[in-house]
Amino acid sequence: MPWGPFQEQRIYSRRRDIHAVYGGQQQGGICTPGEHPVIIVFTGESGEQHGYADGWTSEGTFRYFGEGQVGDMVFQRGNRAIRDHLIDGKDLLVFQTRGREGVRFLGQFECAGYSFETAPDRESNHRRAIVFELVPSSAADEQIETEHPADQAEIDLSALRRRAFTAAQSTPLATGTEARRSLYRRSEAVRRYVLARAAGVCESCNQPAPFMTLKGEPYLEPHHTRRLSDGGPDDPRFVGAVCPSCHREIHYGVHGQSKNDALIEAVKCKEASIKA
What we know:
By secondary structure, this protein is of the alpha+beta class. The protein has 2 domains: 11-139, PUA domain-like (Roll); 142-275, no CATH class. It has 7 helices and 10 strands. Strands 1, 2, 3, 4, 5, 6, 7 and 8 form an 8-stranded mixed beta sheet that branches. Strands 9-10 form a two-stranded antiparallel sheet. A hairpin with a 6-residue loop joins β2 and β3. It is globular and about 60 Å long. The chain starts with 10 loop residues before the first strand and ends with a helix. Residues 144-153 have low confidence and may be disordered. Residues 189-248 form the HNH nuclease domain. This is Amidase. GO terms for molecular function: endonuclease activity; nucleic acid binding; zinc ion binding.
């Protein structure tokens, strides 16, 4: 899945293609550009000299060790940025270092959870390390049924809102399959609330949904207003339910940015009225 100028599995220059464009720290494994809604992670073989290494699990998650060379790892700077990237509305990109070749783009990921484990630090002392469970953004499109349709109809908008905000404001202490499932549940909670909030009317053009689905529901598409892609969940305050035409215009139209800005304001006003 492409992300802006990056194509999966292609090799890029970290200095020229990443830092010269997005800025951020040029050393270390976690780059947090101040002017762009993105967190850039670099994975490689450097951790192996300390007895641990990043890599894929059999459950389809990518284990990524946090930063911090001496003492226990803590949730500050880059570690906090990874854990809270969804809450902050920032995309998470992962690159694999390839020595003199450059860095290979592995894709856009979501932080589905994290865990703690004992690992040696730079001085060979045992310490508590943070291990993030990263899942490809494309996997977040998978849906799991957390409720029966009949149950869903009985839940009012305020209950859906509480559920969505609770799900969106935390990254769980979870690994493997449970981390993936937590990501799906989180995405589903936000999606269901946003669609219910729209009540069948596009939140961009204020026109009725163009058609009904086979389930008898008005068809609208969630759009993430603060992020550069629509993969995965986000904070419901920054997700709009829009018709396919508005969705495509936001992404590809000449006035897409202004249309997205207007949607941000519309959702903000709607959320303010619901909260009141």
